[in-house]
Specification:
There is one protein chain. The chain is an alpha/beta fold. Helix content is about 30%, strand content about 20%. The chain contains 15 helices and 21 strands. It has helices at about 80-90, 105-115, 135, 140-145, 165-180, 190-200, 205-210, 215, 220-240, 250-260, 270-275, 300-310, 325-330, 350-360, 365-380; strands at about 5-15, 20-25, 30-35, 45-50, 55, 60-65, 70, 75, 90-100, 125-130, 150-155, 185, 240-245, 265-270, 315-320, 395-400, 405, 425-430, 430-435, 440-445, 445. The strands form four sheets. Strands 1, 2, 3, 4, 5, 16, 19, 20 and 21 form a nine-stranded mixed sheet that branches. A hairpin with a 4-residue loop joins β1 (about 5-15) and β2 (about 20-25). The mean pLDDT is about 95. The chain binds zinc ion. Zinc ion (ZN) binds near residues 63, 65, 246 and 320. The site of zinc ion has 4 residues, from loops.
C-alpha cells in the first residue's frame, strides 16, 4: 500500500454506521477504511492519531452567499475568508448562489462567480443559479445542467433587488425542471402581505419604540407558511422537484411533511440559526446584528425543526452564510428595513449542530452526519464523491474531539466579522484536522490550506 496519510484509531462515523477503523488516503482519494492499516504504512507516510476522536465526512454546506452584493453593501466573507472559515468549521464543500445582475444571463452569472471563486477558494465548491427573469433565462437551464449545475433558485420576495419570481415563473420553472431532471429551490416568503406589514410599521414612532424588534414583528410565521404552501401547490401540479431553502417555521415543516405523505416531490432544509437562536436576540442593544432573512423564530419552531431533522422531513442543514461586520450592520441607523440581512455561519455549523443536536440528544451521530454531510451531498448530486467515508470517495475528512469545547470568539476565528451570533458559547465539534481531497487544510485547529486549492465540482442530477 502506498497511502500518503493514514488516520488511525478513530471512530469512523458515517450516515450508515459507526465503527473503529483506520482511514487510508492516497492522493485525493480514500483508498481503504478498516482496522489495522497502521501496520501497512510505508516510510514517510503521515500518521494522524485519531484515538478518542470522531472521524466524519467533511460537511457540505449547500447554501452560502460569499462576497454577495446585497442590501447596499457586499457580504464581508469573500471566497478567501469564507472558505478558510469553512475549513476550520469542518466544511469541505460549499454551494453558493450565483445571481445574475442587470441583463446578465445565467451563464454570465456562472462565469462571474467562477472568476471570484477559482483564485481564492480553499475548499471545493459549486453553484446554484438564481433565475431572476424567467423570460430571458428560462431557456438556459439545459446549458447550465451541462456545466454541472442542475439546481436553480427562485425568490418569492426581493422585488426591490430585481430578483423576484411570480407564480407563473415558478410554475414554468417547475414544469421545466420535471422534463430536465433539475431541481427548483425557493426562498418562500409571501411578498405582498410582507410589504403591507412593513409599510404599516414603517413610522418614526414605531421605529423609536421597537427598533430592531420590528424585524420579527413584521415577519410572522404565516409569511413563510403561506409561501411554502403555494410553492408546494405548484410542485404538486407540475410534478417538478421543489426544494424549500432556509425553512424557519414549525408550520413550514408541517406543510412539507403533509406534502411528502401525499407523494409531492418536495424537500426542505433548515439553517443552524433557526435551530440555535430565537427572536429574543432582537431585545438586546445589539439586536439589529441578528437580522437575517428569514429572521429567527420562536423556541417552538426550533423544537419542530429538530423533530423534522430527526424524522427526515427536514432533509438537511445549511448556513445561509451572508456575513456583515458591525460597521455594515450599523447602516440601519434605527430603520430596521435598512439592516444588511445575514449572518456568518460556515465556521460554526458543525459545532452548533453537534453541541445542540448530538450532545443534547436531539440527534444521533448518524443523523448528525446524515443531515450535515451525506444528505446534502446526495440531494445536490455530489454523492458518493462527497458526503461519505468510503473507498473511492474524495478524501474530505474531519477529525474532531467529542469532548473539547471551544469558546466562540470572533477575534480568533477565520470568519471576517468582528462579532458572532454565538459569541461566548462553548461549542464542541470544531475540526482538529480537516482534509479536503487528501490535503490537510486544518492541522491542530489551525488553517493551513491555500487559496486556489478548492476546485469547482460538476454535479450530477439530484439523488435521494
Ligand atoms: Zn440565502
Amino acid at each position: 500500500m502506498a497511502a500518503d496519510t493514514i488516520i488511525i484509531g478513530g471512530t469512523v462515523e458515517t450516515a450508515e454506521k459507526q465503527h473503529k477503523a483506520d482511514v487510508a488516503i492516497e492522493g485525493q482519494k480514500i483508498t481503504a477504511v478498516r482496522p489495522g492499516l497502521a501496520k501497512t504504512a510505508r516510510n514517510g507516510a503521515t500518521i494522524i492519531d485519531a484515538r478518542g476522536k470522531y472521524v466524519i465526512p467533511g460537511g457540505v454546506d449547500a447554501h452560502t452567499h460569499l462576497e454577495l452584493p446585497f442590501c447596499g453593501t457586499v457580504s464581508s466573507d469573500d471566497w478567501n475568508t469564507g472558505t478558510r472559515a469553512a475549513a476550520r468549521g469542518g466544511v469541505t464543500t460549499l454551494i453558493d448562489f450565483a445571481i445574475p445582475y442587470g441583463k446578465d444571463t445565467l451563464e454570465d452569472a456562472f462565469h462571474k462567480w467562477m472568476a471570484k471563486a477559482k483564485p481564492q477558494a480553499c475548499i471545493d465548491y459549486s453553484f446554484h443559479l438564481a433565475i431572476t427573469n424567467w423570460e430571458r433565462q428560462g431557456s438556459e437551464l439545459p446549458r447550465l445542467i451541462r456545466l454541472g449545475c442542475p439546481t436553480f433558485k427562485q425568490f418569492m420576495i426581493y422585488e426591490s433587488e430585481g430578483w423576484q419570481s411570480d407564480d407563473r415563473a415558478m410554475f414554468l420553472a417547475l414544469e421545466q425542471s420535471k422534463k430536465l431532471g433539475a431541481m427548483i429551490m425557493v426562498h418562500a416568503e409571501s411578498s405582498r402581505v410582507l410589504d403591507e406589514l412593513i409599510a404599516r410599521h414603517h413610522t418614526k414612532a414605531l421605529m423609536k419604540k421597537y427598533g430592531a424588534r420590528l424585524h420579527p414583528m413584521t415577519r410572522p410565521n404565516y409569511i413563510e407558511a403561506e409561501a411554502i404552501q403555494r410553492a408546494v401547490c405548484w410542485a404538486e401540479a407540475t410534478g417538478g422537484r421543489l426544494f424549500v431553502v432556509h425553512m424557519s417555521t414549525g408550520q413550514g415543516a408541517d406543510i412539507i411533511r403533509d406534502a411528502q405523505r401525499r407523494g409531492v416531490n418536495v424537500l426542505a432544509e433548515t439553517c443552524t440559526q433557526y435551530l440555535a437562536l430565537d427572536d429574543s436576540v432582537f431585545n438586546g442593544p445589539d439586536g439589529h446584528l441578528f437580522a437575517c432573512c428569514p429572521q429567527v423564530k420562536k423556541k417552538a419552531d426550533q423544537q419542530r425543526l429538530w423533530e423534522g431533522l430527526r424524522r427526515g422531513d427536514v432533509c438537511s442543514i445549511s448556513t445561509d452564510t451572508c456575513s456583515f461586520t458591525r460597521k455594515q450592520k450599523a447602516m440601519w441607523k434605527g430603520d430596521w428595513t435598512k439592516i444588511p440581512m445575514g449572518l456568518p455561519g460556515l465556521e460554526t455549523m458543525l459545532p452548533v449542530v453537534y453541541t445542540l443536536g448530538v450532545l443534547k440528544k436531539r440527534l444521533t451521530m448518524k443523523q448528525f452526519v446524515a443531515r450535515c454531510c451525506t444528505d446534502p451531498a446526495k440531494i445536490m448530486g455530489l454523492y458518493p464523491k462527497k458526503g461519505t467515508i468510503a473507498r473511492g470517495s474524495d478524501a474530505d475528512i474531519v477529525v474532531f474531539d467529542p469532548k473539547k469545547r471551544t469558546k466562540v470568539d470572533p477575534a480568533r476565528m477565520e470568519t471576517n466579522t468582528d462579532w458572532n451570533p454565538y459569541e461566548g458559547w462553548r461549542l464542541a465539534g470544531f475540526a482538529k484536522h480537516t482534509f479536503c481531497r487528501g490535503r490537510r487544510i486544518v492541522a491542530d485547529y489551525k488553517f493551513v490550506g491555500s487559496n486556489g486549492y478548492g476546485r469547482f465540482v460538476r454535479r450530477a442530477k439530484y439523488g435521494r
